[in-house]
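To assess whether the prediction recovers the assembly geometry, we first specified each molecular entity separately, as shown.
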Amino acid sequence: MVMDDLTPEALREPEEAIPTGWSRWSEILVALALIVIGVVILIQTQDIRVIRSMSQVSPRAIPNLVGAGLIVLGIWYTIDIIRNPQVAGAGEDAEDVDVDAPTDWKVLVGLAIALGAFALLMQPAGFIIASGALFAISSTTMGSHKVLLNAVIGIAMGAIIYLVFDIWLGVRLPGGITESLFS
Amino acid sequence: MESLSSLIDGFSVALTPQNLLWALLGVFLGTLVGVLPGIGPALTVALLLPVTYSLDPIPAFIMFAGIYYGGMYGGSTTSILLNTPGESASIITALEGNKMALKGRGATALATAAIGSFVAGTLATIALTFVAPVMADIALKFGPTEYVALMVLAFTTVSTLLGSSMVRGLVSLFFGLALGLVGIDALTGQPRFTFGNPHLLNGIDVVTVAVGLFAVGETLWVASHLRKEKSEVQEISGSKWMTREDWRRSWKPWLRGTALGFPIGSLPAGGAEIPTFLSYSIEKRLTKHPEEFGKGAIEGVAGPEAANNASAAGVLVPLLTLGLPTSATAAIILAAFQRYNLNPGPQLFDRNPDLVWGLIASLYIGNLMLLVLNLPLVGVWVKLLSIPRPWLYSGILVFAGLGSWAQNQSVTGLVVLYVIGVVGFLMRRFNIPVGPAVVAVILGPQAEVQFRRALQISQGDYSVFVTRPIAASIFTVALLTLILPIIWDLYKSRRASTTQPAT
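The predicted structure of the complete assembly is given in tokenized form:
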């Protein structure tokens, strides 16, 4: 509002088409999710115990406010989506991003697998192997097809981070099966 | 004057050989990470936070100061060479700076940005040196009601003054507030919204939120829309120095940028975007070479860069004197303070003067180091920009995992990180600003504590928020920031319907 002609949206070329269909309406799901979260918060708040003798404002007050606020915002947001169509991702135009391209779902699935592998491998196999797996799967998914090289870089990166942060700086990282190499 | 003698004490802290080394390391790492495309200052600071974990407070914060300023230098290098705004305040630098690089004047653009940043950073830090103690004195009179008012003001300004959609800013804010609800209630000690999971008892920390929204969310977004052609990194050509003409055209924008950046940065006004945009508009209006704007006008780099750095120092004023973060980056710095059980505010100036003044002194030192370091090291940074994107973003994900584990030591923490990452992806898809959520996560719980404390003191009397003059006036300003944009929009749409739009 204050600097409308200098917002990222305005600085883009004006030929961006207003989207229709799924692109246009998928945002409503977010608005609806807000309302759902607001309701969940309000319900959960009722489980919070209020001890009569304590401070004047109960521990339920702010959660109730936030929950109610989310519901109100969800409704306002829905109205705004209906009245003001937007170009997707307009504010995030950057050299690496091609906003007009459709979302590459395969990459997202690949990244989900990579992140999941990291979380699952951390404690049993240790940070180094988990990082190696994350890096390898993620790089391959994003377009670097040299899987072996990716794995090597990932493990090397994990090892260096482990050395610097765990051994030198004392930030505890799980050693897993690699721990014996360093003890 | 008291400020000067405190500052001199601060220098004696900052100028020890070890602390100088920490400052150098901070500056180097900050620039390194700040240069990487897709990583803005908030994320730079969040990702490098674990490096300071094992240090004592003073060296940790000295290094932090270096990371903070270094991250901004790095960001401007990237915007000039790559047209990739790591964050929105760099967009303006990219506008003119990248055009200059395309015309073969990249080195000059970098020089004017670096020198302008140094000038602005130094002047702004001087201003900080004198303003901070004054503010801290004023803040001594602040009670919980005033703090609540200030936090509400921070919430409203960070949600409404950026981007073009107030509702989305508020959506982001309330999302952050909801995240802030998780954890143990400060005043009654009972767990809230932890769903029985012991790992959630400590709540969801701001670093996880920042790293999730910025690192993971950004990676998910970029990966799913990756541009297939390699982006062009501009070669550094042309002489590294500025001609007399360049100096002549730059020095006033540097000063004007500083004058804009520091005051606006120190207000709860949502960070660095406003002063840089304003600086650009002003330079465009004042220039003697208007035809160059849009094609590589040096004033368009000098002014906004100075404004950006000055506002970085300005942001430290409310942060150090009131404990009030006004940008996502400031929120993370506040989290860093809290890790050491330090609470920025007037007490900090009293109880830990060597920490505060050591920090301020090392801002000067860091600034100087950056100028000396960056002009020769530009070649190295340019090589960094050519990192293959799959490796860059995968590396970011590994560091994100590191950041989460260092903070939470649990798989639950990673899951929370990922979920927030997905939210970050959605936010980018739907143009929902990320900043308000980060500020809300750290300020929301504090605002609640202060609110309940205020009512405890007033014995349940809500009118205290409107009867105490300082609090009341701050609330009024907050209300205005919410209402004025709505009125403005109504006014504009009414005008548009009565006049033919000229396309």
